[in-house]
Write a structure and sequence with these properties.
- By secondary structure, this protein is mainly alpha-helical.
- The chain has one domain.
- It has eleven helices and no strands.
- It is globular and about 50 Å long.
- It starts with a helix and ends with a helix.
Length: 287
């Protein structure tokens, strides 16, 4: 049961990122974030009456707001990276970095890092280097540019991973008795934040029908993934749940390969494999 919930969350997270990145290619990033997050918020609020009663402390609300600030920023960075870069490269980079952040936080708080975890971090760094190699259009299929330039979206993916890692840490600080309410606080915060950003920057929140549909789809899938993950974490070991959920880039990579026909070099494919293995080592052996 735990495995089904966690793998379901991974599947929906991967699909949500794909639709979010697809929307960001059709509309501005702020509109994409606001629409997708707002749709997810509506679904969560509609489901609240059917969920068990919860007791929310001021501390839970505070961490929920922190999760909203970091989660909204992380989603915006990730969607932009998915829009300008290769999805099959961006998603694994964000995943490994977001997995490293909780481990580094625990290390800073005095926790000891095991040998497998340390190996996972090293493997993750190797993965980032491998998937960041830019295939050359003027050379052979497996050749790489030697100029040292990063492919589009890689730097944004790295930043997104850091911020998403902070989002995961923030939600982890909430109590189990608070139920889904910290997630409500997080979504209210992110929607308000980017709504204000749209007003300040003069960005329109209007999107064409295809972009609205993909944004709403991505927001719905993301919220469903959040709920499944939290349900799994309530009934099973967090290390197992997070390990399985962290495999979500596989869904993004598969959709990008078959829907967008993205092609990667052998080295980049090896990097993606290293990234997935690194996530398993980092998250599965932490804590």
């Amino acid at each position: 049961m735990i495995q089904v919930l966690a793998l379901g969350a991974a599947l929906f997270y991967g699909a949500a990122d794909f639709f979010g990145g697809l929307t960001a290619r059709r509309a501005n990033t702020i509109a994409t974030v606001v629409v997708s997050q707002f749709v997810g918020l509506l679904l969560l609020v509609a489901a609240l009456p059917f969920l068990p009663a919860a007791v929310v402390s001021p501390r839970d609300w505070l961490w929920g707001v922190c999760a909203g600030l970091s989660g909204g920023g992380g989603v915006a960075l990730l969607y932009r990276a998915l829009a300008v870069g290769t999805m099959a490269v961006v998603a694994p980079i964000t995943a490994v970095v977001s997995a490293i952040i909780p481990v580094l936080f625990g290390f800073a708080m005095g926790e000891r890092v095991g040998l497998l975890t340390a190996g996972g971090i090293v493997l993750a760094l190797m993965a980032i280097v491998l998937v960041s190699q830019q295939p050359s259009a003027s050379q052979g299929k497996g050749s790489l540019l030697r100029s040292g330039g990063l492919p589009p979206g890689v730097m944004l993916a790295l930043l997104a991973g850091v911020v998403v890692g902070i989002f995961l840490l923030s939600l982890a600080r909430t109590s189990s008795a608070s139920g889904m309410w910290p997630l409500v606080a997080a979504r209210l915060t992110s929607v308000t934040l980017f709504g204000v950003a749209a007003l300040v920057t003069g960005k329109s929140l209007r999107m064409r029908r295809p972009a609205t549909i993909t944004a709403a789809t991505g927001g719905s899938l993301d919220m469903l993934a959040n709920v499944l993950m939290m349900l799994a974490a309530r009934v099973g070991p967090l290390s197992i749940v997070v390990t399985l959920v962290s495999l979500y880039p596989a869904g993004t990579v598969i959709l990008a390969r078959f829907v967008l026909r993205e092609h990667l070099s052998f080295v980049q494919n090896a990097g993606i494999a290293c990234a997935l293995l690194a996530v398993i080592l980092i998250v599965g052996t932490a804590g």
